[in-house]
Amino acid sequence: MPSLTFKRITPQPSQPVRPGLILKLSSPDQSGIVARIATYVASHSGNLIEFNQFSDRVGKKFFARLEIDTANLDVTVEDFKASFGTLGRSLGATWHFRTLPYKMRTAVLVTKTDHCLNEILLRTELNELPIEITSLIGNRTNCAPIAEKAGLPFHHIEMDGDHRESGFEQIRSLILDQDVELIVLARFMQILPNSFCQEFSGKIINIHHSFLPAFIGANPYRQAHDRGVKLIGATCHYVTADLDAGPIIEQEVERVSHFHSPNDLARLGRQCERIALAKGIRFHVHDRTVIDGHRAIVFPD
Asked: Strand, helix or coil at 163?
């Protein structure tokens, strides 16, 4: 696919950024938990901008995502976060605070195709994704010109044959040196080692070229065409040691018919990939996902 030439885009006007916190929490489900959390926020003059919650009746778990306006807190933000520990521990919860505003340091890994990379760059330029792309990393040089046009460093890592193990060690070093918080596989056509998946668990997002579970192996669009499928799609998911089996963040589908050629299916598939990956990244960087075993709880945007 030909690469795009990026011109300077005037970012969309964004809403004024108020000082705040995002609180993401999970705990055993129990009565009164919402009231106790809301009371804690109110007791320190915090203002709840958003309170998303989900009680899993099957697993007997509680999940929540809060956005708190801290402009009028009667304590410092650090004291507010520290004091919450008393409540959090009494609930048997695990929790995470993120201070607003922020940009998540992100590395994008690519191979040859560039449509997902271009989508990420465009949405970042439009201020739709609060990320800071630290670098592009590729096992091929096809996307190097795009990195140059976008003013981003490109690292070509040789991974063929005997270079695979050393290649992943180079990628690991780059990620650690650059304090990367999120790794996006934008059609990076390499299987990640188990140790890499475990070290960066919950921080690697992949886009899969089908509506999982679906056709596996080579040329999935040809297989889909030969089977006369009526829906194709793409799946954005967290990466685990189990290939293409990580918690699903977002899925996009397109209806197809008998007159669509394999090229048509590939075109529609690329569209699904771009949208699903962009949404998945947005959900992750806004702390709208909670990994619960083999699935992801995703709070709406």
From this structure: helix
Q: Which of 244, 264, 292, 301 is catalytic?
A: 244
Asked if residue 93 belongs to a domain, the reply is yes
Residues 153, 36 share a domain: no
Query: pTM for this structure?
Result: 0.88
Tell me how many domains the chain contains. Answer: 2
Reported as a single tens digit per residue, the pLDDT across 51-87 is: 999 999 989 999 999 999 999 999 999 999 999 999 9
Give the residue from 50, 30, 28 showing the smallest Cα distance to 41. Answer: 50
* 68 neighbors 21 (Cβ within 8 angstroms): yes
* Strand blocks (E) in the chain: 20-28, 47-56, 61-69, 94-100, 104-110, 131-138, 154-156, 182-185, 204-208, 231-238, 248-255, 289-292, 295-298
Whether 233 shows a pLDDT value over 90: the answer reads: no
Which tens digits make up the pLDDT trace of 15-33? Answer: 556 789 999 999 999 999 9
Alpha carbon distance 111, 34 (integer Å): 46
Q: Reduce the DSSP state of residue 235 to 3 states and report it.
A: strand
258 CB neighbour count, 10 Å cutoff: 7
Q: Say if residue 30 is in the same domain as residue 163.
A: no
- Give the whole-angstrom CA distance, residue 200 versus residue 182: 9
Respond yes or no: is residue 244 known to be catalytic: yes
Whole-angstrom CA distances from 290 to 6, 146, 282 are 34, 33, 14
> pLDDT at position 287, please?
97
| Residues 209/211/213/218 CA torsion (nearest 10 deg) | -30
Percent of the chain with pLDDT over 90: 77
Residue 96 belongs to domain spanning: 20-100
